[in-house]
Specification:
Number of strands: 16
Number of helices: 10
Bound molecules: succinic acid
Distance between the termini: 28 Å
Low-confidence stretches: none
Oligomer: single chain
Radius of gyration: 18 Å
CATH class: Alpha Beta
Structural class: alpha/beta
CATH architecture: Alpha-Beta Barrel
Strand content: 15-25%
Mean pLDDT: 97
Helix content: 25-40%
Number of domains: 1
Largest sheet: 8 strands, parallel
Strand order of the largest sheet: 3-16-15-10-9-8-7-4
Shape: globular
Length: 301
Amino acid sequence: MVNTSVNLCGITLQNPVIPASGTCGFGAELAEWYDLNLLGAISIKGTTLEPRFGNPTPRIAECPNGMLNSVGLQNPGVETVAAEEIPRLKKHYHQPIIANISGFSIDEYTACCERICNSVDLVELNISCPNVHNGGMAFGTSATEAARVVSAVRKVCSRPLVVKLTPNVTDITVIARACEEAGADGLTLINTLLGMRIDVMRRKPVLANKMGGFSGAAVFPIALRMIYQVHLACRIPIIGCGGVSSARDVIEMMMAGATAVQVGSENLRNPLACKEIIENLPLEMEKLHISDLKEFIGIIQ
Ligand code: SIN
C-alpha cells in the first residue's frame, strides 16, 4: 500500500494530480468522462471580472509534440462563475477547487478575487497569460509588477494564494522570489511559452492573434528545469505544470521540487489522462520503491 497524498498550502490532496486551468472547463467537460472525485484537486477555467468572448479564431494550432493556443481568456465573468458554475461543480465534486483568476489592472484582480475566493479552496493568480494585451503576462514579466499585484490580492484573499508564472522571462527565480516576498503562499509553473506558426500556403500566421502559448509534451524539460531552479530559490510550495502526460512525469516533477502537478494539454488529447495517471501512480511508485510520495518532493539538489 503506497501513500499518494500531499499537503499543498495546508490543504490535503488525496493525490498530487490536478487538471490545469483551461483544460477542463468548470468541471462539466471532464465529468462526462469519469468521476472527478478521484482527482487531487481541480483548477477551473480562467476567470476575469467581466465576461470575455476571447480572441478571434483560429485560436489553436497543432505542433509536433504540442499545441499553440490563443484563447484570450474566454469566460462568462466572475459573477456567473461564482453564482452558477462553482455551485454546479460542487453538486458532484467534493475535492479541493482552485479558482484561476486574471485581470487587466490590479483593481480587476482584487475585485475578481474578492468575489470568488470564499467559494473555493485555493486561488491561482494568473499573471502569465501570453494572449492578452495590458494584462496577464505584462504583470508576470516584471518583478516589480508581479509583487504589486500579489501584494494587493493577498490582502483581499481569504484562501491560500498561488501565483501562476510565465516561462517567458530571462530568470524565473527573480519573479518567483518577488512573489514569495509579496505574500504568495505557493507558485504554479509554468504557463505556456510564446510561440508562432505560419501557414505557408496562405502566407499568413495560423493563429488570428499571430502568436500564442505553446504547451504539450515538448515543454516538459523546460518546465522541469524551472521547477528545479525555483525550488532551490524559494521556500513556498510549487505546483508543477507543463507537458505532463504520465505518472512517471508526475514523479519526475515532484523530484525536481513540485508538491502537486497539473496536467494540461494531455487532457485535450486524451480526456481520461488524469484518471489514467492517478490509477498508474501507485504502480509506478511500487516500481520505483516509493512508499510515500511526499518524501520525494525536491530530492534532487
Ligand atoms: C488563454 O485564455 O489565452 C490561455 C490562458 C493562459 O495561458 O493563461
